[in-house]
Amino acid sequence: MKRLPTTWRDLARHPLFWPGVTLVLLCLVNVYFNRSFFAIEIKSGHLYGSVIDILNRAAPLMLVAMGMTLVIATRGIDISVGATVAISGAVVASLIGGSLIIQNGVQTYVSNVPMPLAIIAALAVALLCGLWNGLLVAGAGMQPIIATLILMVAGRGIAQLITEGQIVTVYYEPFFIIGNGFLLGIPVSLYIVALVLAIMLLLIHRTALGLFIESVGINPVAARFSGISARALVFWVYAFCALTAGIAALIITSNVKSADGNNAGLLLELDAILAVTLGGTSLAGGRFSIMGSLLGSLIIQTLTYAIYSLGVPPEINMVVKALVVFGVCLIQSEALRAMLGKHLFRTGEAA
Amino acid sequence: MRFSHHINSRTLPLIVTSLLFVILFGFGSIAYPSFFSAQVFINLLIDNAFLCVVAIGMTFVILSGGIDLSVGSIVALTTMVTASLVEHQHWSIYSVIPLVLLMGAAFGMLMGVLIYVFKLQAFIVTLGGMFLARGLCYVISIDSIAITDAAYTEISQYRIMLGDEVFISINAVIALITLAVAIYLAQYTRFGRTVYAIGGNERSAQLMGLPVGQTTILVYTLSGFCSALGGVLVTFYMLSGYGLHALGMELDAIAAAVIGGTLLTGGVGYVAGSLVGVLILGVIQSLISFDGTLSSWWTRIAVGVLLCLFCLMQRLFERGGTSFSALFAYWKKPLEPAGRAD
Amino acid sequence: MTVEPILVMQGICKSFPGVNALKNAQLRLFPGEVHALMGQNGAGKSTLIKVLTGVETPDAGEIRLNGQAISPACVGEAQKMGITAVYQEINLCPNLSVAENIFIGRFPMRAIGIDWKTIEHQAAAELAALNIHIDVSLPLASYPVAIQQMVAIARALTTEAQVLILDEPTSSLDEGEVERLFQALRQLKQKGMAIVFITHFLDQTYAIADRITVLRNGEFIGEYPASTLSRLDLINTMVGREINEASYAANSSAQAASVADKPYVSARGLGSTGGMHPFDLDLYRGQVTGLGGLLGSGRTETARLLFGIDRADSGTIRVDGHAVKLNSPRQAVRYGIAFCPEDRKNEGIVADLSIRENIILALQARRGIFHYLPKRAQSAIAEQYIEQLGIRTSDAEKPIGQLSGGNQQKALLARWLATDPKMLILDEPTRGIDIAAKLEIMELVKAQCKKGLAILFISSEMSEVLRVSDRIAVLRDRQKIGEIAGHDADEQNVFRMIAGAEA
């Protein structure tokens, strides 16, 4: 599918070119303000440095953005992922809970429910959220934004119901590995991202999933007439998206060692949509790029990092993000291109 | 059968909503002794006046077939700008309030221009607006700013007595006036009818020679204005400006409009329905607080469930749309061929 | 004739990239007449109307209204001049009331706002003038399409039109509804209005039209009084004779040898409300069955029923002798049925995907999501068909949207041939394709048929249908009215059947 770029022109046309350039520029900004930006040290056997930090912090966003990419590719949108994160986080935190007890004179951490079971339960709940969305979109035929709005509204209530309105703190050390641990010097969360990425790439490139999703996104009627069951496909895409949100919830909960039904994953859906858009996947559906969405997530996180290192209050981040949203939208706007004339932009419009 | 005459897929959701409100209020009156009183009812209006104003603006946007996610943030930005100008710059409230209203309208207009002129998705543009307004709040201040201005507190605490026991606040009065103006706009002006036409079929509206572009931009301007007005009401209600005010209010406003019978696909619904929607959200909150054993998060779940039920009901109407309405049409008025003219 | 025409269009030319839509087209309208504008698909009728209503600007030619040259630049401008159009798809707002639909944009106002009372009164009066007596306060959507169409006409009339254009207003009306529309038209005619009426129904043309203008391939063919032009002549003028006789001679009658004795697909009493009247149809392997009929006669509807796109309300389908239910294209594909839709752009190609991906799409869908064809196998299949069908492209990785129409069509053919179907439905496979590619595609169809494929062939060009078909099922007004064996069929035969009663 991807041939090696032979000329600069081909390179500039590569879908990952502009996201890549943006990321490199952002990194340069960071290097300008912080000469040791790319420095990576080894502290107590762990890789340590700004880049690792960005990657680690971007992990939940990368996961959700990957799921969101598929949803957007089918011409949909899922604005309930933040709520799904809150619910899943609440489930896993309250199931594990945990306390430090002294057993035979040894301090041991005990979880309420065996950790693997708690994790499976959290993922199952996330999947359930996705199935619900899928049912409304593919089954009842609601507009995706409305269908997922329902869970977005109710989801945080459900999360608080699970945590009984409290911030549930987890005291079970093994659970912290997911969000804070290192394996062979690299954060565990990155292994999770890599695993999900590998599975997705496998599904997209070794099965017909990618082809079908793109067909449904570009021309749903033609896809249906070719014998693709578009409904079932859309249904499972929402389920998968929620599952990635569930995995992200595990990382987030483990990282902050608690679950907060009100604030966990707040605005995550918007960041994820932004990441997907930055990565070059059009909100109109169709051709998508998982790697692009990963780059998009990294752009957002690097931007946040840059804002921190500039010493600007981090809340200003939102203003910058807003400007990025407007900028990206305008670049994608057909109307603007038409206004500027077709010479400025090489559009692939065929007669 | 005069009554059945006015039941159709347009009015049925509103009727269902109104009935639901009566049932919920009736349930509260039976379950909790002090619930059934005029003041409890008016408090619904007082406590939700700002939401009502915001929902009215949202209703226009949804009627035109769009959506506005920025309303909550504009409310917050308005409180922030107001508080900062009144407290830090010591401006008079009579210059601050018109200024923030203008600011909200301008904000909405800019988004409207992006949506119509550049043909961008309303969802994304207003999402950007949401980030921008919220971010600008924090540019002003990260902390809450309390308003201590004498004129402000006076307005805030002013009570208009209706009879001996019952009173109403300035906020509620403003909300009711806004509602009246909105109903007039929607039903008796060219602008209002064009909004409905665009929501019904934008291409047809264009072919019928209606000013689609101008109206689309105006709709978002109106929504921005209503959000700013809602923000002013919030400052009266809370006497503070804060970047975290009205977090997620866009969801409540959308929910109120939908529960009030406005079709999310646009073109069908009544502004007055949104008031009923807001009152239902309010009565759920009151019921939960009267109960005492239920926690506040049940509100969100209840709203979600209601939203889901109403969306499903709307889908049912859309799907059965032709057959359903045709049923009514044929039932009441069998097509009369030429004969009747003779 | 002493009466001056109210409107004259002369020497109208209009070309779009790659297409000459109108070449020297002309149209004369007299007050107090209904003028039928006739022509095949692509004859240029709608372009001519668009020029008249200001939607398109002509490249050349002049339009005179009451003797004065006009050049409407937009719909609103044309309306102000008194030229209004009512289209097939009703351009009204279904959510607004009937009265509002008639007056929106021109509301009578009172001091405090819109004067609803006057609007409802006037709307009721306007409709009463058209012999429609309904509650104008109800939403438009609560009335059947016929009434909606009348409301659209009423709206057009309140603009004080001199020229009223009706672009296929009857395609979704039943007979009674059409009669009501015609009554209204006759009244308007008496008031001196000039009415342009476009339809594909011959019966309706003769029922209402005083004069007929025929267009073919964007050219003006002739203007005839309706009373002097027989149906058969009308059809012949519309269809013309662009057939080259050599290929016409190679009629398929010789090759109907290897036909299986049992039909592969057999429909009995298949029909759907609002679509086709129940019909019987047998499709044999190794045989091309043509569907003859004018536009709107139910050709595409038949295809959609057989491919499971529209659900049948009545009747049965047997595939290879077994009774089956076709509720989705997916099921039809599973039974070895393939369908190249008429609307290539919106229903056929997936424009942004490569030729390779488009070709293997149906095959992959049939194999299922997990039995993925390796890239190499995909390329092999794509290359094979690109060569076999002569798809002209630099490579298989080009987005299919960049190909020409003919090559897109071949790629779609390849998509289905790759699934090794037993029956292939081709709906207008040659639409919008140049002559050379047309012939190629026809050859491909014949060759596939010889390999034992059952083919259902649909085309508006009767000569094409005759050339490839072993058997022709003739349709009229969404009914199957008969079958003719290929060797018995010539155009006159078929047209006589379509023309029906008169012939």
Mind explaining what this structure looks like?
- The complex is a heterotrimer of chains A (351), B (342) and C (503).
- By secondary structure, chain A is mostly helical.
- Chain A is 66% helix and 7% strand.
- Chain A has helices at residues 8-13, 17-33, 50-73, 81-96, 115-139, 144-163, 173-180, 188-206, 209-218, 220-225, 230-256, 268-278, 290-309, 317-332, 334-340; strands spanning 41-43, 46-48, 99-103, 106-110, 167-169, 182-183, 186-187, 258-260.
- In chain A, helix 2 (17-33) runs parallel beside helix 13, helix 5 packs antiparallel against helix 6 and helix 12 packs across helix 13.
- With 342 residues, chain B is mainly alpha-helical.
- Chain B has a two-stranded antiparallel sheet with strand order 1-4. In chain B, strands 2-3 form a two-stranded antiparallel sheet.
- With 503 residues, chain C is an alpha/beta fold.
- Chain C folds into three domains: 7-239, Rossmann fold (3-Layer(aba) Sandwich), CATH 3.40.50.300; 265-336 and 425-500, P-loop containing nucleotide triphosphate hydrolases (Rossmann fold, 3-Layer(aba) Sandwich); 348-420, no CATH class.
- Helix content of chain C is 35%, strand content 24%.
- Chain C is globular.
- In chain C, 50% of the residues are buried.
- Chains A and B meet through helix 6, helix 12, helix 14 and helix 15 of A and helix 7, helix 13 and helix 15 of B.
